[in-house]
C-alpha cells in the first residue's frame, strides 16, 4: 500500500469493482429505470438465495474443500418445509427449525464422509447431491407439494404454508420508500456480515484459512483440523437449507427441482469473489460482491431484452475473466484447486 | 599406480552471493573407491550435480580420460560414461514401468533406433540385470520390488552404460544389512573391473568396508585427503567438521528439575527400549541419520503417534497426549522440520504465521481477534529473533529461507512451554540465521526443557548441553557437550544401538 | 361443453367397475387382458405434468387389466432407444413412446413395428405411418388463452411475453402468439424474456421483476407455461402491480388453482389439457390398435379453458374438484371404444 503506483496492482485490486461501476453506469444510460432504489432492491432480492448459498460454499472453499451438494440441500429444504407445513400441518417455526437441522445434518454427514471416510470432497458432496435429489422426491412420489394435493396414500393434503413462513420470502420493510426492502434481502445482508465477521475477525475463521492454505502446518500447530473441516460443511449445509427456506417462502409451494442452477450460480459468485480486491482466495466480501455482480448483469441484460442464452454466455465470460484475474494476473500463486 | 579416470581442477560455482564451490581440486582413479564426506552445505551435492550434467560450473576444468568433460545435460554425462545413483531411490527409477523398461529407459528416452520389440527388450534387460546380480522377473513393475532391488535396478540401468565413473550418493541409507552387503559385493566387482567410484556417505561402517581413500569437504573446498593405510577416520571426520565447531563455547548451566521422563520407550516394533530424561534449563540435541527415529520420538512426545511401549511423565504426572492440540495445551511444543511442508502457511503474513497456535491468547469475546495484541507479539518476536523484513504484515513467502525459519521458530518461542522440541531448526538456513536461531533458543531455555533434533553433528555441537545419539529407533549414546569424542559420536551414529539410557 | 357422449361413457366407466368385468365382451386380445403386456418408454419424467401423465397411463392400464411396464430414460436419448429394444425383448405387445428425439427414436420405433408390436407415440414424431401420434394441441391451448385475453382486455394492449425457443410445445404455442399479433395490430410486445433455469418460477420471477420495472406500462403478460406464469405472478405481486397486469397462461395444477384464486390475483385464465387424460388416451389408442381397430395418424386431446371467474364461481380448490366440477377436464372422449373400461373417478 505504501508502494509506488503500479497499474497491474491497481487493476488486480480494483479492476472488478470498477468493472461493476462501469456496468451500472452503462445500464443506467441505456435504461434509466435501472438506476432506482426499487431496481437496486430487485437486484439484491434476485441474488439473495444464491448469495446465501455462495456464502456457505465459501466456508468450504476456505478450508480447501468444496460442496457440490448445496443446490440439492436447498431444494430438499424447499420440499421439506412444504412437506412439514402442508402434509404434517406444522407451523412456521417448526418447519424452519426442521429444515435448518436437516441442512446441518447433511453438512455433518458430508464432513464425516470427507474427514473420517477419507472420501475426496468433490466426490462425497457429488454423491450427496444425487442422493438428495432422489430423496426429496420419494415421499411425494415425484410430485410437487401444494395445498390440496392428493396424497400417495389417498386423501388430500389440508395443511397450508403458514403466513409467518411466507413472510420470510415476501414481507417488505419500509425503508426510505414504503414496502421497499424484502426480508430476504435483509437476511442476505445479515448473513453476509456474519460470515464475513466469522471468517475475517474470529480465531475460528483464521484457523479455517490456515487449514485451507496448509492443513499439515495447521495440524502441527495443534489445531483440530478435522473438526474445523466438518464445521465448514455444517455451515455450508445450514446456509444452503436456509436458502431453500427462502425459496419455499417465495414460491409458496414445494417445487420439485434439481437445484443445479442454484449450485452453479452460487459457485460462480464464490469464484468471482476470488478476484475482488485481488484477494486471490475465497472470502465472504468477495462472494457477496460476486453475487451482486451477477445480479446486476442479469437485471441489466433482462431490462435490455437480451435473451436468456446470451445471459448464460455473459455469466460464463465474467467467471472466466474473474478466474484470469485470480490465477494469472495476481502474482501470488492462487490456490491450484477450487 | 592406478590410472586417473577423472581430474577436477579449480572448480567453482556460486548461487547469487553464495560461493558453494570455491576451487575444488580432485582426482579420481580407475579401480578405486573414493569416499567423499562433508556436512550439509559443504558443496557435495553441487559437485555431484556438475559431474552428472545437471548444473554447469562457473570456472575450472574437468577431464575424463584425458579429454575435456563438460556435460550439457544428464544424458550427455551418461553417454560420456559418468553414471550417478541418487540418494532417493525413486529418482533413479520409474516405479510404474516394468523392470525391463526401466533398465532400458535411457535408450527409450534418447529415441535411438531402438524399436519396441518386447522379446528383444526383455532379453537385453535380463542381460543387464544379470550383470549386477539382480535376479527378478523383468516384466514386473518396479513398484513391486523391494527397496534394495529397486536400487539395483537403478544401478543396473547405470551399468548398462559401461561407466568410467560411478557416483553413489548415500546409497545404503534405506537398505537392510543383507541388502547393503549385496551392494558392496557389486561395488567390489566394479572396482575390480576398473571403474572409478565416488562414494558419498556418512555411515562409518560403509566407509570402513569400502574406502580406498577418503576425501573431506568443507565450505566449498577439499579440506582433507586421507590415502595412506590404515585410513585416519577420525581425521577425516575432523576435516569435514572443521575447527570452528570446537570454538563454539557452550557454557553448560546446571540442569533443573526433570520435565520429561520416559521409561522403557519403544518407538517401533523390534526397537530396543530406552529411557530418557529432559530437564529444565537444559538443551539436549539428538543426532542420528535420517530414519534413525528422531522424528518418531518427536511424534510420540507431541501426540501424533502413540509409542509401541513405555510410559511418559510430564512434570511428574502421567503424560499420554492424544493429539498435538492436547500436547500444546500441556505445554509441549513442536517446531516441525521441512518448514514449507509442515509449518509455513503460505497465504498468511508473518504475524499470522507466528500467532497460529495461540489464537486463543489473542481472542476476545466470541472469538474475535484482537489485532493489536497479535501485532505486539509479532513485533516483539521480530526484534528478538532478528527477522529481516519490512514489517509484521509481510507475506511469509517474501522472506528468505532463514527468515522464514526464524518466524516458524518464533511461533513456538512466543509462549512459555514446558518442553520445546525443534526438529531440524537449521534446515535450509544460511549461517547467520543459524547462529541467530541457535542463540535465541539457548537464551530462552531457562524455564523449560529443550530438545533439538538434527542430523548434522556440528549443529548439535553448536547448540546442546548434552548430545544423544539415535540409531535404529533407540538411543545409542549420550555425551556431555565438553571435549566430546567425535570419533565415538560418529561411530554411534553409524552403529546399531544396544539400548542405552540417557 | 359437456357432450352427452362424454357423460354417458363417463357414467358407463363408473358403472362397470372393475374393468375386468368387461373382459368377456372385449375383442382379442382383451378377452384375456392379464396376458396383454404393454410398455411405456419415457424420455421426460420429472415434474408434475409427467407425473400426472404417468398416473393417467397407470389408471387406464389398470382399468383395462393389462400389464404395464414403465421404462424411464431420464432424458437420455440413447438409453431411451435401448429401452425400446429391451421392451421388444421382453415380448410386450404394445409400446407407448412418451417424448424423445425424432433422430434417436425413429429407428427404434421401426424395429418395434417390424417385430409386430403396436406402437403409439406421445408428443414425439417418429415419422412412421404405422404409429399414431397422441398430441395435446398446443396451438389450441394458446388460442383459448389468447381469445380470453382479447375478450377481457379488448384488442389493444401492451404485452410482455415469456418464451424460451427450442422447446417443441413452446415453439408451437409461439406460432399462435405470432398469428394473434398479426391479427390484432393493437397488441404491442414490449418485452420478451424467459429461462428454463431451475427452479424455473424463481428464475422467471427475477427476470420479470426487471422487465416490469423497465416497462411499467405492460398490461398483459402471456406466459404459455404455468411455471412461467407462476414466476410472473410472484414478480407482479412483489412489484405491487397486481391490479395493473393480467396474466394468461397454459397448463394447470393444484398450486396454480390456489394462485389464480388469491384475492386480486393477476392470473386471469389458463388453458389446459389434463395430462392424466392424455395418459389415458395414449393407452386407449394403443388398446384400439391391439384390438385391430382403425386409428388415425394423429389423436388430438382437446384443451379446456379455465378462468379465474369459473374457479371462484364453482369454488374449485384442487385438481380433483376441477375434474368433478368441470367434467370436460377430467375426461376426453377420444379413442374410446364401447368395450373399454374407463378408470374410476
3D structure, described in words:
The complex is a heterotrimer of chains A (338), B (502) and C (345). Chain A has 338 residues and is an all-alpha fold. Chain A has a domain at 55-150 and 163-258. Chain A contains 13 helices and two strands, in the order ααααααββααααααα. Chain A has helices spanning 7-30, 37-62, 70-87, 92-115, 121-135, 163-170, 183-201, 203-213, 215-220, 225-251, 260-275, 284-303, 308-329, and strands at residues 172-175, 177-182. Residues 331-338 of chain A have low confidence and may be disordered. Chain B has 502 residues and is of the alpha/beta class. Chain B folds into three domains: 4-246, Rossmann fold (3-Layer(aba) Sandwich); 250-331 and 418-502, Rossmann fold, CATH 3.40.50; 343-416, no CATH class. Chain B has 19 helices and 20 strands. Chain B has helices at residues 44-51, 74-80, 99-103, 105-110, 118-131, 147-159, 177-192, 204-210, 233-241, 244-247, 294-301, 324-330, 339-342, 350-355, 371-385, 401-413, 431-443, 457-463, 486-494; strands at 4-15, 18-29, 33-38, 59-64, 67-68, 82-85, 165-169, 196-200, 213-218, 221-226, 258-266, 274-279, 282-287, 309-314, 317-318, 332-335, 419-423, 449-453, 466-471, 474-480. In chain B, the strands form four sheets. In chain B, strands 6-7-8-3-9-10 form a six-stranded mixed sheet, sandwiched between helices. A six-stranded mixed sheet of chain B has the order 16-17-18-13-19-20, with helices on both faces. A four-stranded antiparallel sheet of chain B has the order 2-1-4-5, with no helix packed on it. In chain B, β14 and β15 (317-318) form a beta hairpin. In chain B, 48% of the residues are buried. Residues 496-501 of chain B have low confidence and may be disordered. With 345 residues, chain C is an alpha/beta fold. Chain C has two domains: 4-136 and 274-303, Rossmann fold (3-Layer(aba) Sandwich); 138-272, Response regulator (Rossmann fold, 3-Layer(aba) Sandwich), CATH 3.40.50. Helix content of chain C is 46%, strand content 18%. Chain C is elongated, with a radius of gyration of 21 Å. Chains in contact: A-B, A-C. Chains A and B meet through α8 and α9 of A and α12 of B.
